[in-house]
Amino acid sequence: AQSVTQPDIHITVSEGASLELRCNYSYGATPYLFWYVQSPGQGLQLLLKYFSGDTLVQGIKGFEAEFKRSQSSFNLRKPSVHWSDAAEYFCAVGANQAGTALIFGKGTTLSVSS
Amino acid sequence: EPEVTQTPSHQVTQMGQEVILRCVPISNHLYFYWYRQILGQKVEFLVSFYNNEISEKSEIFDDQFSVERPDGSNFTLKIRSTKLEDSAMYFCASLREINEKLFFGSGTQLSVL
Q1: pLDDT beyond 60 at A99
Q2: Separation in Å, CA A20 to CA A11, A75, B27, B58, B72
Q3: Contact (CB<8Å) B106/A107
Q4: What is the pLDDT of residues B56-69, one digit of tens each?
Q5: Which of A21, A29, A45, A40 is nearest to A93 (CA)?
Q6: Which end of chain B has the smaller Cβ count within 10 Å, N or C?
Q7: What are phi and psi of A67, to 5 degrees?
Q8: Radius of gyration from C-alpha coordinates of chain A
């Protein structure tokens, strides 16, 4: 069955510390992988996406993610977290480049402490 | 950056009533989507729409749901007879071309009482 698992429901990180949000997927075909961020009262904003090629992809706001096929993972990282990064983060997998008919994970809520 | 606009931001309705959620996609976009997120659960795909017809729909999108692009700018989701379990945040999204970025609206929170 196709699914996305984000094992951490809630993570708290100190401002300036590094961050890693975990994502594992199960998908029958070659996956197209995405990370979205949702701030309170806002829509979903695309942070980055992976289709093929270099397994380390750079996104907006200083985020990056690494695709590891052997582990079926696509973890999101940021070297130094800012207070404005506090939000909900969703990993998603889709069948094509557009990310249509996306399958989302349940999300990880990131809190940033000062 | 261009925006997908959804109205209203919050809609309250009685069980059994019809409700229409409205979306204005980005003007030159061709592909349109509805997703929903029940409180505490994951975002779920409902339906995709292209060239004035549904191109894909999920199991959630049963006969109670319909979509329409009535005037070339709006994209609506209708729920004919709402149920308590339809309470969720509904997100509209649009896309210009298949290899480009999917833009989401900020959502309509539907509360069915």
Answers
A1: no
A2: 9, 7, 36, 31, 42
A3: no
A4: 898 999 999 999 99
A5: A29
A6: N
A7: -90, 125
A8: 13
A97 interfaces chain B, CB cutoff of 8 Å:
yes
Report the candidate in A6, A102, A3 with the shortest Cα–Cα distance to residue B37. Answer: A102
Residue with tokens 């349940």: A106
Q: C-alpha distances in angstroms, A63 versus A56, A85, B13, B21, B24?
A: 11, 10, 40, 33, 30
Beta-carbon separation of A43 and B45 below 8 A: no
Interface touch B45/A106, C-beta < 8 Å: no
Average pLDDT over residues A92-106: 76
Segment A9-35, tens digit of pLDDT: 999 999 999 999 999 998 877 788 999
Say how many CA atoms lie within 13 Å of A59 toward its Cβ: 23
Compute the Cα dihedral for B86, B90, B92, B93 and give only its sign.
negative
Q: Find out whether B43 and A44 touch, Cβ atoms under 8 Å.
A: yes
Assess A41–B contact: CB distance below 8 Å, yes or no: yes
What pLDDT score does A100 carry? 63
3-state secondary structure of B105: coil
Q: Which residue has the tokens 């060239």?
A: B51
Residue type, A105: G
pLDDT at B99: 64
